[in-house]
């Protein structure tokens, strides 16, 4: 636990080992463990909605939610990584891929750490309001805050690469677009994260395999009264 907290502190302080000056394998392993543990932490907090609002099967939902947040963060990362590698190669930056990869993993670990730090706020919100729609919106806000913090960390980790070659700025923009595109669809497929009060606890919903972007357009279309 002391080692884990030390790794988290290093990530937030942008310690040099996170992207440089240490063998690739041990550094990536430390960051991956940090990502896993802190995302499990926040996922478990997300799943307490049923328990704190007096519903049944809350332990099962807590377990499901604890598993889903690491799946979301690691899945979006792994699905987007091949495209990032191809862009690195096409733009002639393949020699920097190892350092860039460590920066991306460190930023993902930072995202999980910030989410875990926000978990007391999430649980306090649940205890203050039993409304499912408000709980969903609040979790969305927490993910937005954590994502902004992760972008700040990623830009800091990429600073040496950008100084070496300004083309890395394009890679940062490309990665953000790829990651958001994948994460939205993956989050839609992995729902429910909280568990609606009027529905059975399920790992996946029967209608999960839809296109998130089509659904978003349909929701917006209906909201406009068409």
Query: How widely separated are the two ends?
Result: 54 Å
Structural class by sheet pairing and helices: mainly alpha
* Integer-rounded radius of gyration: 19 Å
Anisotropy-based shape: globular
Portion of residues in beta strands equals under 5%
Mean pLDDT: 88
- Low-pLDDT runs of 5+ residues are none
Number of helices: 8
Give a short account of the largest sheet. none
Order of helices and strands: HHHHHHHH
* Number of DSSP E strands: 0
Fraction in helix: over 70%
Furnish the topology, listing elements before pairings.
Blueprint: H1 2-13, H2 24-46, H3 49-52, H4 58-90, H5 97-128, H6 132-164, H7 168-190, H8 212-223
Short characterization:
By secondary structure, the protein is an all-alpha fold. Helix content is about 75%, strand content about 0%.
Give an account of the 3D structure.
- The chain is mostly helical.
- Helix content is 76%, strand content 0%.
- The chain contains eight helices and no strands.
- It has helices spanning 2-13, 24-46, 49-52, 58-90, 97-128, 132-164, 168-190, 212-223.
- The longest helix has 33 residues, at 58-90.
- It is globular.
- The mean pLDDT is 88.
């Amino acid at each position: 636990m002391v080692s884990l907290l030390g790794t988290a502190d290093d990530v937030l302080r942008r310690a040099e080992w996170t992207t440089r000056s240490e063998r690739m394998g041990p550094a990536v392993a430390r960051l991956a463990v940090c990502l896993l543990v802190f995302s499990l932490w926040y996922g478990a907090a997300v799943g307490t909605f049923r328990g704190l609002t007096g519903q049944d099967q809350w332990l099962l939902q807590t377990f499901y939610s604890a598993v889903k947040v690491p799946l979301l963060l690691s899945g979006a990362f792994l699905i987007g990584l091949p495209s990032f590698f191809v862009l690195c190669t096409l733009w002639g930056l393949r020699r920097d891929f190892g350092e860039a990869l460590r920066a991306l993993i460190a930023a993902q670990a930072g995202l999980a750490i910030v989410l875990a730090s926000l978990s007391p706020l999430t649980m306090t919100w649940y205890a203050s309001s039993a409304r499912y729609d408000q709980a969903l919106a609040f979790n969305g806000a927490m993910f937005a805050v954590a994502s902004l913090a992760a972008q700040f960390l990623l830009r800091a980790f990429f600073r040496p690469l950008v100084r070496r070659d300004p083309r890395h700025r394009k890679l940062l923009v490309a990665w953000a677009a790829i990651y958001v595109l994948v994460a939205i669809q993956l989050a839609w497929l992995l729902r429910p994260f909280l568990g609606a009060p009027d529905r059975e606890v399920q790992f996946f919903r029967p209608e999960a395999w839809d296109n998130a972007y089509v659904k978003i357009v349909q929701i917006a279309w209906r909201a406009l009264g068409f």
